[in-house]
Design a protein that fits this description.
The protein is 52% helix and 21% strand. By secondary structure, it is of the alpha+beta class. The N and C termini lie far apart (99 Å). The mean pLDDT is 86.
Length: 174
């Protein structure tokens, strides 16, 4: 009788373990779906912020000559965005205006620099990131159209200092 009771208990435990595994799989799938939805919402928010920056807030944009182009430069500390979202915003800015430069950072020191398709040869994103690192310390890397990294002291990210260094790299205005 003890053997039969032990087998029943073992079978019950095995059934419970199988049920818990199935429940865990369902919860993992739901978690992955929710993560995906959160990332989509972040991307949509980043796109909306980029549209706001390139539209309504146009007055905050600085214009400089780069090569044969008059280019828009976006320099902004972005609250509440992680590095992926910063990248989405810079991508949208440069997609919308291929003659633009964007240098965006967040309070935790993540930074993304982008150079539009038409000006990346005149002012690569890597140079823009080097300027941020020169102003506030840090490191990073990338390509002509996109660079990302970290800055050591966000409080030193002064727009006027950054503009001065951009001007010195770009050369005198004509």
């Amino acid at each position: 009788m003890e053997v039969a009771g032990g087998r029943a208990a073992l079978d019950s435990l095995k059934a419970e373990a199988a049920r818990l595994r199935e429940e865990n799989e369902v919860l993992e799938k739901q978690g992955k779906q929710l993560e995906k939805e959160v990332q989509q919402m972040k991307a949509q928010g980043a796109q909306a912020q980029a549209r706001e920056m390139t539209g309504e807030r146009e007055r905050d944009v600085w214009v400089i000559e780069l090569g044969p182009y008059e280019s828009k430069v976006y320099l902004e500390k972005m609250e509440g965005l992680d590095q992926r979202s910063l990248r989405s915003v810079t991508d949208e800015i440069c997609r919308t205006n291929p003659r633009s430069l964007a240098l965006l950072w967040n309070p935790s020191g993540q930074v993304v620099a982008a150079s539009g398709a038409q000006i990346k040869g005149f002012f690569p994103a890597t140079q823009l990131l080097k300027i941020a690192n020169q102003v506030a310390g840090g490191s990073g890397g990338g390509r002509d159209e996109l660079a990302q990294g970290g800055i050591e002291d966000v409080s030193k990210m002064e727009k006027e200092k950054i503009k001065q260094l951009i001007r010195s790299y770009a050369g005198p205005r004509k």
